[in-house]
Amino acid sequence: DGGITQSPKYLFRKEGQNVTLSCEQNLNHDAMYWYRQDPGQGLRLIYYSQIVNDFQKGDIAEGYSVSREKKESFPLTVTSAQKNPTAFYLCASSIVTLGPTGTGELFFGEGSRLTVL
Amino acid sequence: QKEVEQDPGPLSVPEGAIVSLNCTYSNSAFQYFMWYRQYSRKGPELLMYTYSSGNKEDGRFTAQVDKSSKYISLFIRDSQPSDSATYLCAMTGEYGNKLVFGAGTILRVKS
Question: What per-residue confidence (pLDDT) applies to A98?
């Protein structure tokens, strides 16, 4: 079955530690995204990548880093510089082209919940 | 002011009711409008997609877009307890794939 796999599902981190969230997709999608979801704030874009070895900052990139060495993989590192990292993190992928006949659909993983102790 | 405004709810309705969920937006460049449904502790999934203005119907769900008022709606007929979820509106302009999401409305359908 095609889809997006995020791991781990739950993660606890001590202050000052970096953590890496994994995201793998087998949908053969070019574009991949990381979102952060906080209660009452919807989804906010952290980073996105439309092609291997290239990525762009989203709206809240500070304190985060990503890599896109393979089409299937887009890991997110939450660094110690992120002031408020406790959140639900969602990875998504899509076919890049968006148009009237396309769905513009983002396919999401099941999320990773990060808690800073 | 946020680019997309959505009442977070929660909205609580009895089973069988008609539900109306709404978003307003400020960016007149938005052309593509979507509704995602998110069950608790899961990722969102696409429910409805509309290009430009007009209505789109899919089973019990109807999406409406009024670009002149910068207002979009999702109607759910004959609501079921299984419709209980968070509904997120999302939209984007013509030349980009970067979606702007609303905060999401929590819907609870009571049996």
Answer: 57
Question: What pLDDT, in 10s, does the model give residues B12-66?
Answer: 999 999 999 999 999 998 988 999 999 998 999 999 988 888 899 999 999 999 9
Measured between CA atoms, the residue of chain A closest to residue B39 is A110
Other beta carbons within 10 Å of B49: 18
Q: Among A40, A92, A104, whose Cβ lies nearest the Cβ of B103?
A: A40
Cα B89 from Cα A25, distance rounded (Å): 24
- Residue with token string 């997110």: A76
CA distances (Å), origin A111, targets A32, A45, A108, B88: 14, 14, 8, 16
Q: Measured between alpha carbons, how far is A21 from A92 in angstroms, rounded to an integer?
A: 13
CB atoms within 10 A of CB A16: 8
Model confidence at A16, pLDDT cuts 50, 70, 90, reads confident
Q: Does B47 touch chain A (CB under 8 A)?
A: no
Q: What angle do CA B29, B51, B67 make, to 5 degrees?
A: 50
Mean pLDDT value across chain A = 90
How far off is chain A from B16, nearest CA to CA, in Å?
27
